Amino acid sequence: MQRSIFAAVFCFISAGCWGQTLSPKWEELTAEDFVAAMKQAGGVCVLPFGIIEKHGPAGPLGTDLINVRYLVSQAVKKEYAVVFPEYYFGQIFEAQHQPGTIAYSSKLQMEMLQETVGEMARNGCQKIVIANGHGGNNGLLQYFIRTQLETPHDYVVYTYSGLGIFNVSDLPPAARPSKPGVDGHAGESEVANVMASRPELGHPDRGGRQSGANLRRLDLPAGVATGIDWYSMYPNHYAGDASGATAARGAASMEFSSSRMAEALRAIKSDTVSPRLQKEFFDLTRRPDRKSTRLNSSH
Asked: Is the pLDDT score of 19 beyond 60?
């Protein structure tokens, strides 16, 4: 009898018969648990991609990093995946004039991102989801996912933009802006989202210390762009008004956004088409007759 009780207790405390709750955070797992976590995640891993930059007078420098990490942490409670540690090596040259901004060279951005997804894949991530929390990374990521077709590999990279990619009418009432025009870079929504997870880091009382208005200093035709356009509009690196930010709005927004992201993770887990088509594409690029056709067509 005593032996049976001991065996049952040992089974319970040793991550045995009853299973074990695995952290989704890569850095919190032991090497042994990492293997189990990867299996539980079905090889799906998330790389939350933020930045370090000024976020107006009301938000911390790490607003995008804090928000995307929190979003992902909530989403993987609903659909398990392994989450890579803090990553902020993105594109933010347009904010170099502001205190605290960390702007890495474009070469390092690309190399670091490629090395990171490569290492994730080497550790068993078959589907890598780059969850972007910073608008300045959008162009970088669009280019990056195209470069994934340059060299054959056996993993698929997905991108996901989970914050602020909704029509206001799609949001539940509690997640909507307090009035028109307050949302934007470092505006009400971003600061509210920070306050949902780290209320001590949001300072809506400071939201009016600087202007977040568009100065419209460039007068160029539609369809014309230049690298200085953001600075021409928002020299304070602030767009909108964070004065009305509340933790309640942030919580409602994060609940809505994390449910959407959990749905996306489920779709990615069940996606068999992308891996198949990618393999088909790489097989075609390596066929001698295909290469010959491509070369001949250039003459």
From this structure: no
